[in-house]
Amino acid sequence: xxxxxxxxxxxxxxxxxxxxxxxxxxxxxxxxxxxxxxxxxxxxxxxxxxxxxxxxxxxxxxxxxxxxxxxxxxxxxxxxxxxxxxxxxxxxxxxxxxxxxxxxxxxxxxxxxxxxxxxxxxxxxxxxxxxxxxxxx
Length: 137
Known about the structure:
The protein is mainly beta. It has no helices and 13 strands. A hairpin with a 4-residue loop joins strand 4 (about 35-45) and strand 5. It starts with 7 loop residues before the first strand and ends with a strand.
């Protein structure tokens, strides 16, 4: 896998891929149409952020490349890569318990608060891509 040179794209399987952690300067794409929604991505070496219809959906520090990002009623799944270990925050449902899987291994259950945000750490160094799956428990 690699960075997304066009910053965001639709995939044949109905998912999206976004982010380019190799950029030295912040770049963005606004009003990207996807399944009736408008997406906005901002990305570069220090941060990658995705919004849907103006609402927070994904953020990583440092910047990442995300492939195969799919939202379902039960959660989200994607693969992520970066030049350093990443702290990822997802915008999910408020006050809901989710089980988090990183690299196919459960890291436990986490409950979101009133803002619906869930944070996870992903060790991306020395890995081509790490699978992340977050599902309602």
